[in-house]
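Minutes, project check-in
Item: structure for the 138-residue chain
Input as provided by the requester:
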Amino acid sequence: MRLEKNFTNVINHEDVALEAKLVCDCENDIFNIYHTGILKKGLFGINLTKNQKQIVIKAKCPSCLKEYILYDSTIDGSRPKGVRLDDYKLFNYKDENSFKITMKYNFYEENFNTDKFEMIFIEGNNANLKKTILIYEE
């Protein structure tokens, strides 16, 4: 997996699911999130959705400015598709834009621990939020 060396607190769920926290090479675990998608308000909060059938979500460390691609619909997953856009916007939730990030993946056994996952969940939280929020799922 592309981000494997930046995962900490990894939990393997019987070689079909993986959960991990993201940490930067500089050991910071707070990130700003940028995306090429569309932010929509839903019944239960905000939803980050694809823009023109694609989305790229990246995390940027505010300490050292290193960037990590969390999800790119044009290359990730078992069925990548779309043409990559590079118009990034800062993800904001209730005036918060710095998050600790948890990545969750579901796999078929033969693709475990690869970028050919079946489902991805990107979650975020910080000291000011009362709950973990779902930033993106596919």
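Outcome recorded: The CA atoms of residues 79 and 116 lie 8 Å apart.
No further action items on this chain.
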